[in-house]
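Design request, tokens follow.
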């Protein structure tokens, strides 16, 4: 089977499954609205632990879960004193002022420590489990993209510790994992390149936990955040790294990317991830032991430029500028920061996997539950519509 046929069939199956899940949610939601239940006091709300909660994605999950006022949230992280930890402490203060007891923060939660995680998951009803092939020390990420042996070991240490902690806490009825788009070509399409080792590792671990008796909801979301265009809203003054690549901003005649300009890419805003995590916990009868795919938008580089020009108020022009693949390969020998985006661009390009959704029309079912953070909304939040021609 050729690659395009395999991808198309997989995308159709993903879209059909999403429709079944969302239709089931809408049915239950309508029934609950007909028979509303009284609100519970905060101390009786389900308790959800969120690992790695100082990171972009998991911080947003903590924030979105607290907004629902349906869960007590236990935000777990390892290293105090970082900018990301300060951001979490700020959220705690805001939440405590209005809803005391809704959010607690717990530093020292080492993802490789069975003892620490067992304590962290105690009395929880649910866990958001984020395992990664990165290690972080004092808030600085050590990337294992060039080290499949060390990276696999680092990853499986987290999985083993998490599994032991979950088995020690039977109160945890639902675990949510966050994973890249599903592999749609390996073993199906002809002559496809090998899947990068850490993507393969991440794609396996949800089923690994299920096989060990853990109830897992796996959310497949894009590997590309809007933050690749500009620093994400959860990041405040913190950058993604130390190189100029990490600080790239959208400006006149420049909208950068790492993929070919005509390749369809799915993007995600971390707030959308947080909202769907809340929905998966709210409707366990629908999502328990299911995989679910979501995104905030689908667009090519050319379409991103058209959107930027359409939303701009002053006729400012933007041009798609692809970061040279050869230069990324050279830089990957010097700095690990570019290894992940390099492998993403290779794996999700024309010769490999492709994303879950072929276009924005495929995301229409998601909007029946949550309005998406479209690229237009993101550009507006960044002030891109106000950039004037010739503005420095």
């Amino acid at each position: 089977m050729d690659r395009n046929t395999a991808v198309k069939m997989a995308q159709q199956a993903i879209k059909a499954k999403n429709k079944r899940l969302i239709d089931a949610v809408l049915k239950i939601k309508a029934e609950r609205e007909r028979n509303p239940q009284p609100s519970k006091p905060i101390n009786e709300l389900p308790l959800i632990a969120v690992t790695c909660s100082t990171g972009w994605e998991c911080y947003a999950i903590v924030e979105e879960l607290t907004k629902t006022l349906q869960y007590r949230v236990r935000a777990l992280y390892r290293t105090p004193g970082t900018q990301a930890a300060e951001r979490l402490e700020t959220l705690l203060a805001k939440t405590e002022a209005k809803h005391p007891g809704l959010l607690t923060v717990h530093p020292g939660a080492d993802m490789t420590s069975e003892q620490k995680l067992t304590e962290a998951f105690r009395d929880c009803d649910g866990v958001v489990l984020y395992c990664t092939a990165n290690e972080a020390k004092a808030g600085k990420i050590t990337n294992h993209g060039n080290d499949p042996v060390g990276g696999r070991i680092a990853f499986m240490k987290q999985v083993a510790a998490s599994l032991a902690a979950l088995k020690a806490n039977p109160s945890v009825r639902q675990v949510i994992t966050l994973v890249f788009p599903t592999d749609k070509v390996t073993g199906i399409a002809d002559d496809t390149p090998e899947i990068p080792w850490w993507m393969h590792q991440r794609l396996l671990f949800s089923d690994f936990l299920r096989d060990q008796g853990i109830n897992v909801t796996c959310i497949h979301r894009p590997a590309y955040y809007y933050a690749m265009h500009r620093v994400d809203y959860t990041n405040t003054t913190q950058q993604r790294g130390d190189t100029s690549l990490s600080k790239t901003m959208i400006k006149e005649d420049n909208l950068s990317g790492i993929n070919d300009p005509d390749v369809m890419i799915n993007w995600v805003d971390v707030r959308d991830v947080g909202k769907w995590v809340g929905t998966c916990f709210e409707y366990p009868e629908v999502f328990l032991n299911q995989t679910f795919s979501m995104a905030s938008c689908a667009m090519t580089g050319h379409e991103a430029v058209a959107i930027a020009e359409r939303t701009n108020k002053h006729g400012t022009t933007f041009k798609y500028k692809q970061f040279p693949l050869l230069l990324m390969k050279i830089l990957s020998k010097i700095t690990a920061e570019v290894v992940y985006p390099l492998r993403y661009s290779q794996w999700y390009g024309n010769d490999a996997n492709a994303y879950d959704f072929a276009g924005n029309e495929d995301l229409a079912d998601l909007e029946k539950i949550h309005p998406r953070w479209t690229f237009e909304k993101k550009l507006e939040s960044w002030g891109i519509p106000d950039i004037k021609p010739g503005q420095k």
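Comment from the thread starter after seeing the answer: thanks! DSSP finds twelve helices and 14 strands in the chain.
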